[in-house]
Amino acid sequence: MTQVIRTPIAEDSPGPPEAGFGGITRQPAPAPTPPGAPDFVSIRNSREFAALRRGYRRFVFPMTALFFVWYLTYVLLAAYARDFMSQRLFGSVNVGLVLGLAQFVTTVAITAGYVRFARRRIDPRVAELRAAAGMPVEVGA
Amino acid sequence: MTVAAESLGSPALNMTVFGAFVVVSLYVVYRMSHRNSSTSDYYAAGSAFTGTQNGVALTGDYLSAASFLGIAGAIAVHGYDGFLYSIGFLVAWLVALLLVAELVRNTGRFTMGDVLAYRMRQRPVRAAAATSTLVISFFYMLAQMAGAGGLVALLLNVHGKGGQALVITIVGLIMIFYVLVGGMKGTTWVQIIKASILLLCVLLMTVFLLGKFGFSVSALLDEAAAHNSGGRGVLEPGAQYGTSGISRLDFISLSLALILGAAGLPHVLMRFYTVPNAKQARRSVVWAVGAMTVFYLATLVIGYGASALVGSDTILSSTGKENSAAPLLAFEIGGTVLLGIVAAVAFATILAVVAGLTITASASFAHDVYANIVRRGKAEPAAEVRVARLTAVVIGGLAIVGGILANGQNVAFLVALAFAFAASANLSTLLYSLFWRRFNTRGTLWAMYGGLGSCLLLVFFSPVVSGAPTSIFPGADFHLFPLSNPGIVSIPVSFLAGFLGTVFSREQADPRLQAEMEVRSLTGIGS
Q1: What angle do CA B412, B418, B421 make, to 5 degrees?
Q2: B168, B152 contact by CB (below 8 A)
Q3: Among B259, B372, B519, whose Cβ lies nearest the Cβ of A40?
Q4: Nearest residue on chain A to B431, judged by CA atoms?
Q5: How far is B244 from chain A (nearest CA, A)?
Q6: Could you tell me if B233 and B468 are in contact, meaning their C-beta atoms sit under 8 angstroms apart?
Q7: How far is Cα B461 from Cα A120, in angstroms, rounded to an integer?
Q8: Which of B100, B41, B18 shows the shortest CA–CA distance to B342?
Q9: pLDDT of residue B215
Q10: How far apart are CA B54 and CA B62, in angstroms?
Q11: Residue B203 exposure: Cα atoms within 13 Å on the Cβ side
């Protein structure tokens, strides 16, 4: 998965990127690489890209598992642990309502956490890779 | 309470406020849409919206009448179980944020088919993607249009089937006009206007309600329970789903479809193409999550508030049943004026969501089927846009006819079904093609058709269609599957089918296109 090959392999250079759409034509005989087209295979095999992909996946996969399990736990509690969910905490506010609101809190927290992570760890790496491939810098967020 | 069976407030005022919304949005659509000749303009508004604008528009697209009237009503009548819906609808956005939005933005251009067919054989995969898009959009649209009938009866005092059909037709024609004239740009502005009014409206109602109960949630809950026929049970889970083992399992199945379906809804996916890059797509989801957090918290207060101030019996005996909770509450606290605004928001919601669905379905047909399957990728952009416009008219016509035919039918399950379809056909294939290097054409087709097919089969043999008093055919009984929500079976079936299809196929995934897609999805290089 994460093998690192630093030398670009010239024979593997891909077709033009604009062939990516509606291109049934491109599959049998790839067009010759025009000058300036990014060499996707060598980018994919570069150490920088591997680091980007690893960093991204190391954040989003565990985070997805976390919120999914937490949501399922909540749903299962609501379905099968009615007595627990009905315990009153203060006034008429019970465990179920607090756990439900906690789902809102974790959703917002994970969103904020991801934005922070992406700004620090993803965006700079993407900018470097884009610059190396001669792509314009993205604006925004 | 004396409202109940007849219409509420002043139909003339309701009509006037809605008319004002239509006039303002038509003006905006007209002003914003001087050029819609290129495919990029028509499908993706030239990718020129900011993340903030698109985030609000996503909110507008996502918060259908089912979300606004349906959830507030479900909380008012069933209490906590209605709240469970809103949590699923919200948490689902994390899937879009973490795994889908940015990668889809980087990889595709106009449709879901762009992403799925990127490194596969174009024609079969695009055909599958278009099939799934059209089926999901049509079911979702039917639910919206059928709901319009009940709303007409409640808010405009039109009770005859003929009169309701006329109003549904007018709503449909306005929607078609938005899509034809405005393209994606105009439709997006309609969503933005609608979402802003909707959020403002629910916020004002929420603040008013909280103030009325001295900013004590506990006092609100006590009053809600006191005026609900379910008593204190409505503060706990289980009032609606907790009656039997089957209904609990049904609820879990529904929850799975909700949380996994949102990120696979075609009209949500298509929104990510209206912004220039992945960062703005990320920002879109962040804004959408923020807006929806506020919205769903507000519906909790509005739902319990409706139970407290209007009472569950009054709500259930009124014309629109559960759907009338929010309008009745608006009338109770703000008189005819607030009711007029809420009524207009509800109509605007139906109008805007159906417009979003229509442009998605027409884009998928024109781009995936016409341009890439029929013309093999060699369509003139002008011809493609013409086909898209024509498709929009046909789909709009179908929505009008379907809405008139389904008027009064119990079609609430259609929205849940659309989510189940999206989770079992689209999300599995999107995740596989973005994250699994070996995934290939056969895997895509098996996952897509396996998910869609198992969903349809399970629903056909479920109590939704036969064997229960609320079925479409209450007289017949050929139900074999006990659950009304197929997700708990069809989602795993789709993932498994995608895996097996890939493993059993001798076809090699094209390594060069795979590298291109992998690099492009994460960095946007080449897009």
Answers
A1: 140
A2: yes
A3: B519
A4: A61
A5: 10
A6: no
A7: 51
A8: B18
A9: 85
A10: 12
A11: 10
Do residues B347 and B18 make contact, with C-beta atoms less than 8 angstroms apart?
A: yes
CA distance B219 to B522: 50
Q: In this complex, is the C-beta atom of A115 within 8 Å of any C-beta atom belonging to chain B?
A: yes
Q: What is chain B's length?
A: 527
Residue of A nearest to B372 (CA): A22
pLDDT-derived band at A2 (thresholds 50, 70, 90) equals: very low
Closest by CA to B136, choosing from B490, B422, B464, B450, is B422
pLDDT band at A25 (very low <50, low <70, confident <90, very high): very low
Q: Which amino acid is at A46?
A: S
The three-class DSSP label of residue B467 is coil
- Count the neighbouring beta carbons within 10 Å of the beta carbon of residue B426: 31
pLDDT of residue A15: 39
d(CA B203, CA B162): 36
Q: What part of B 105-164 touches A (C-beta under 8 Å)?
A: 109, 114, 118, 121-123
Length of chain A: 141
Which residues are A90's β-sheet partners?
Answer: A93
CB B252 within 8 A of CB A112: no
Q: Which parts of chain B sit beneath pLDDT 70?
A: 1-9, 34-37, 66, 242, 320, 408-412
**Nearest-CA neighbor of B292 among B87, B442, B119?**
B87
Is B519 within 8 Å of A38 when comparing Cβ atoms?
A: yes
B161 to chain A, minimum CA–CA distance in Å? 40
Euclidean distance between the first and the last CA atom of chain B, given in angstroms as a whole number: 60
Cβ-nearest to B241 among A56, A79, A107:
A79
| Helices A95-117 & A47-80 angle (0-180, nearest 10) | 170
Q: Phi, psi (5° rounding) for residue A90? A: -145, 135
Question: Degrees (nearest 5) of the Cα angle B59, A94, B323?
Answer: 40
Q: Per-residue confidence at A138, pLDDT binned at 50, 70, 90?
A: low
pTM of structure? 0.89
pLDDT digits (tens, 9 = 90+) for A77-110: 998 888 898 888 888 888 999 999 999 999 999 9
Residues A137 and A130 sit within 8 Å (Cβ to Cβ): yes
Residue B365: name the closest of B340, B344, B384 by CA: B384
Best CA proximity match to B255, nearest among A31, A82, A103: A103
